[in-house]
User: What shape does this take?
Amino acid sequence: MIPEIHMEDYRYPLTDERIAKYPLAERDASKLLFYHNGEIRENVFRQLPGLLPEGSLMIFNETRVVPARLHFQRESGAHIEIFCLEPADPTDYNLNFAAVGSCAWKCVIGNAKRWKNDRLTLCNPENDPTVSGMNLRAELLGRNERTGTVRFSWDSPDPFSRVLEICGTIPIPPYLNRESEAIDSERYQTLYARIRGSVAAPTAGLHFTDAVLDGIRSRGVDIRNVCLHVGAGTFLPVKSSEIAGHTMHREPFSVSLELLKAIRSRKGRLIAVGTTSVRTLESLYYAGARILRDGEPSDVAQWDPYEGGFTCSTEEALDAIIAYLEAHGAGELRIGTRIIIVPGFRFRLVDYMVTNFHQSESTLLLLIAAFVGDDWHRIYDYALSHSFRFLSYGDSSLLVRAGLQ
Assistant: This one.
């Protein structure tokens, strides 16, 4: 049954001055709120290793943000902003980024009404010769309100990944109310980002430094990676008054066979860095249950956790994925998820979560409320009254799942 959740119950007063517009000079100098069994303590992020239980398994999202925002203009001079969402031709991220000469993407199109299906040329106000040499053009293949499929073509022998690096900008969140700057190319990216594909950073990871990671390993914590490419849907507000009226965006993810076995055999706690890692890990149960039901993996649907029909244990679900991958000689599970985690959700894997402070009336705040229960009010009241910085470039928290000793 779809939960009956009123979004107004997940509202809190976030004023513009509480939103961090820029990162701190040092990544690990941010504040860290620690919540466990109703107790709230304030720390500095570089103290995180000492708060983690020894022998735990800690999961990071190694996706890498791509400079997916491109600015074009028509012959008339009208400016059209194109925000690449996901590859359309080829549909595989790696193949698309490796494409030479031409490729297509599903995009959000700004000022879309001004684009009359003519071919656009890239804006180059600085007359950069490298940009000019690309001669990047855009052609609209089809549209649906503000989104559409765009064919890009260019003259240089470079792959599309290089074209984006030269011609694109990092798509920082709209609530920062500013244009991308040079600092964002470095700081709106985690140190461990490896696999290109996200149009938004998994921001919980922005606080980690090499020193913090070394400190975590010295605690005997096993560090592993998943990859979920964060889509632009992460910025979309919930416009319906009831969560039942909100549609979640699909995000592709991959989890290695090696990690699945490590999760299955773990003895310690499972710590997820960021809500993207949480959604990936908690999707595994439904992926395995679908294999048991259908014989093969498929995308996890938005309401799978609430509509019933999945009765296997978590161990059986993980074993099903492992057995399927081994039988097909595959080294990783690669599917998509639209899972929505709201109060009433049963967490099957994640025990601890590192996460930033999220927007009022957002699906991410619902996830936090599902994880810690009604104490989310106390946590956010504390952060607001103790000068914590909010959202992507803001401060962090380490939350322990409600009821966990």
User: Anything to note?
Assistant: The mean pLDDT is 94. Residues 69-168 form one domain.
